Amino acid sequence: MHTRGVELPLPRRARPLLFDALPGLEANTPWRVLVHGPTGVERIDRTVSGLEGVEAWMKRDDLASPIYGGNKVRRYEFLLASAEARGCRRLVTAGGVASTQAMATALFGRALGFAVRMVLFDQPITRFAKQALLIDADAGAELIAGGNHLTTALRMVSALVRDRKDGNFLILPGAANPVANLGYVDAMLELAQQVEAGLLPRPDLIVLPTGSSGTLAALSLGAAWLGWDTEVVGVRITPWIATNRLTIGQIVRATDRHLHARDPARWRPQAGRVRWSLEPRALGPGYGHPTAEARAAIEEVRALTGAPGEVTYSAKALVGLRLVAAEPRHRGKTILLWNTLSTMRPEPGPTARSKVPPLLQWVLDAPEVA
Ligand SMILES: Cc1ncc(COP(=O)(O)O)c(C=O)c1O
Questions:
Q1: C-alpha to C-alpha distance for 152 and 119, rounded to whole angstroms
Q2: What value, to the nearest 5°, has the Cα angle with vertex 142 and ends 138 and 144?
């Protein structure tokens, strides 16, 4: 199928499971297929050390698309469709220079025919960060150096008001809003089908890296709606100021209200029934900081997925998974690692470097911390 942008290798999935479960949602919810699903499930406790006391599985959202996988793809099926339905022609976002959301916006934005503008703030420079920046540039995104968090916020405002006539659509870091979160309520229904088909046991715990918390909130709402007592454990990848009980509670309630308002008969309020917790011990000094444990886990991620991990998301998730599995109260439990970092990434072309603006060239020359 040809889209407004480039040709997409179009997945076969005709509609999200959520539309069958909640017909009231479909009428006013734009959706564009991006995910090649269902994503696989695999047993991993014999591949990773430190999981001896539990039965561990992995959900391979890292392979959610051959363009670029990870936990933005399901979210963008709803979010980018909603931008399109509003007539917006440009996506405007912000993130660290290694931001996976920035990469997903550059790649899927281009695939669906949007212009993409992004403000990128400083963070520890890793090999992954350099590659991410080159991918953003090569995908034709307009890149703006953000500097620190405050200057990034100011530049973001100016990025948003410039060329407003084109219809600028704002995607905040993490995009933890109810529309994007529908992607992971839907993902929970996909997992339930796989459990029903006998592909894996119903997990007692789901572990995933957590930042803006939309994915955690949506999975826990989905589990509650299914009537599962599964606890969703977010391995914190951002400091408490960004990821805490207050922010998560607010995202859970907003997403719950969104679903209830659209199909009140089938989606009864679930916010009081969600089961989630945070695992803070893998974070270290902060977002993107390469802790010794995370560095050591980079190669173990390769053994699991076929591609090396990196210290911000996947390696810390593995460290967190081990910490959760080691708790005596979790002995014998079934734990599902929801793999949220893409294993697929486009190779930046030979001219990518020349597309990085002068104020961001320093990133490509900086020493790598991991
Ligand atoms: C690979 C990866 N895992 C997990 C997360 C965290 O997801 P959320 O922001 O929904 O908490 C992100 C967010 O950027 C991510 O890129």
A1: 7
A2: 115
**pLDDT > 70 in the chain, percent:** 97
Extract the tokens encoding 2: 């040809």
Task: Check if 124 has its Cβ closer than 6 Å to any atom of ligand 1.
Answer: no
Question: What integer is the mean pLDDT of 304-308?
Answer: 90
- Asked if 109 and 91 count as a contact pair (C-beta separation under 8 A), the reply is yes
Domains recognised in the chain with CATH numbers: 17-71+177-338 (3.40.50.1100), 74-175 (3.40.50.1100)
Nearest CA to ligand 1 atom 9: 212
Closest CA to 76 of 154, 183, 149: 183
- Burial call 341-369: b when 16+ CB within 10 Å, e when fewer: bbbebbebeeebeebbeeebeebbeeeee
Q: Residue 7's pLDDT is what?
A: 44
339 lines ligand 1 (CB under 6 A): no
Q: Helix/strand/coil (H, E, C) string of 171-217? A: ECCCCCCHHHHHHHHHHHHHHHHHHHCCCCCCCCEEEEEECCCHHHH
Per-residue pLDDT band for 5 (boundaries 50, 70, 90) equals very low
Strand bridging mode 41-43 / 55-59: antiparallel
Q: Distance (Å, rounded) from C-alpha 92 to C-alpha 211?
A: 20
Residue pair 36/8 in contact by the 8 Å Cβ criterion = no
Instruction: Tell whether the torsion through CA atoms of 106, 155, 213 and 348 is positive or negative.
Output: positive
Q: Could you tell me which of 96, 95, 119 has the C-alpha nearest to residue 175?
A: 95
Residues 176 and 242: beta-carbon distance below 8 Å: no
Task: Please indicate whether residue 317, judged by its CB atom, sits closer than 6 Å to ligand 1.
Answer: no
Among protein residues, the one with the nearest Cα to ligand 1's atom 3 is 340
Cα 361 to Cα 19, 143, 293, 356: the distances in Å are: 45, 11, 30, 6
- Counting from 1 in the atom list of ligand 1, the atom nearest the Cα of 175 is 9
Of 59, 99, 237, 244, the one to substitute when testing ligand 1's pocket (max ligand atoms within 8 A of C-beta) is 237
pLDDT digit string, tens, across residues 19-41 = 999 999 998 899 999 999 899 99
DSSP category for residue 90: E
Q: How far apart are CA 12 and CA 174, in angstroms?
A: 27
